[in-house]
Design brief:
291 residues, alpha/beta, Rossmann fold, 4-stranded antiparallel sheet, 11 helices, 20% strand, globular, binds adenosine-5'-triphosphate, binds magnesium ion
């Protein structure tokens, strides 16, 4: 029998903790094979893994859409129970934006869709209106407020789905491949919005195939492979190992690849490990000026 995980008492209680989550789809795969995940206040976590690794399945557990076959989800130290009251609390704490907006949107028009969640939080009308207006504005879709959701483009639907989750003002916002389908300005707006949310204390979890984005943006990277959490930690250590990443169907971020190449050629000191294009540029300019 598996022993319970020993909690580090020196750490504050995570907002959300998954302990040995297992999930078997009906008549199908064991998609999660005992996954642990810790989400602390205000963290930025990138969840990476090859197709079919279990990312979406895990994210669907984080707001109780899926109930684990075994294992426990803790919200602020309390185990989640799958009844109405507890799920309501969980969903007010954790907002999930699904990979495909068609799976998320259901109300007739944009405004109704975005206001549905806040209305269910029993907030007064003024507060609901303010939250919805802010969310619409943040995603630049105020002009679409009366539009039927089925008459939107894919990217517009995605913006509405994100606005709906943001209007809930969750402590943790989970986004499943949010950039897919957004145009450059949509992606830019979303990054700005996520930055502001994170600065005001919201924890963010983003499932992504973009390793460079994960490396640059995240404070922690969680690697899923075949339904198992291989590692969760700072990107620096995890993203510099091409062999391990390749073993899990992933590749190192381009900036690590380029930096390693420059180091091999003696053009960058081994101590430099730039995380962003700007850091790489600065390191190269400094060296050029010195020589
Ligand atoms: N509705 C379902 N019914 C049965 N099996 C499913 C279902 N959804 C996913 N699976 C299986 O569960 C496993 C994990 O799938 P999941 O969608 O969580 O992966 P993922 O990491 O999100 O992949 P992707 O990068 O393609 O989005 C896969 O083997 C998949 O075939
Ligand atoms: Mg997925």
């Amino acid at each position: 029998m598996a022993l319970p995980l020993v909690q580090d008492r020196t750490q504050p209680t995570p907002v959300l903790r998954a302990e040995r989550l297992r999930y078997v789809y009906e008549g199908g795969d064991e998609a999660l094979r005992g996954v642990d995940l810790e989400v602390h206040h205000g963290r930025r976590i990138a969840l990476v893994g090859a197709n079919g690794a279990g990312k979406t399945t895990l994210l669907l557990h984080l707001n109780g859409t899926l109930k684990p076959t075994s294992g426990v989800l803790y919200i602020e130290g309390e185990p989640v129970e799958y009844h109405r009251r507890c799920l309501k609390r969980l969903r007010a704490t954790v907002g999930v934006v699904l990979q495909n907006p068609d799976d998320q949107l259901f109300a007739g028009a944009v405004y109704q869709d975005v206001s549905f969640g806040p209305l269910n939080l029993d907030l007064d009308e003024t507060e609901v209106r303010e939250r919805v207006e802010q969310a619409l504005e943040a995603m630049d879709i105020s002009g679409l407020r009366h539009r039927p959701t089925h008459m939107l483009s894919h990217g517009q639907k995605k913006r509405v789905a994100i606005a709906g989750a943001v209007a809930m003002q969750p402590k943790i916002l989970v986004l499943d491949e949010p950039m897919a389908g957004l145009d450059p300005s949509g992606a830019w707006q979303l990054m700005g919005l996520l930055k502001r949310l994170n600065e005001s204390g919201t924890s963010l979890i983003i499932a992504t195939h973009d390793m460079s984005f994960a490396y640059e943006w995240a404070q922690e990277v969680a690697i899923l492979s075949g339904g198992t959490m291989v590692a969760q930690g700072p990107p620096g250590g995890l993203m510099n190992d091409p062999a391990t990443l390749a073993h899990h169907g992933l590749r190192i971020p381009w900036i690590v690849e380029v930096s390693k190449l420059l180091m091999e050629c003696g053009l960058l000191p081994a101590s430099a490990m730039p995380r962003t294009r700007d850091e790489l540029r600065t390191a190269l300019l400094t060296l050029t000026r010195r020589s």
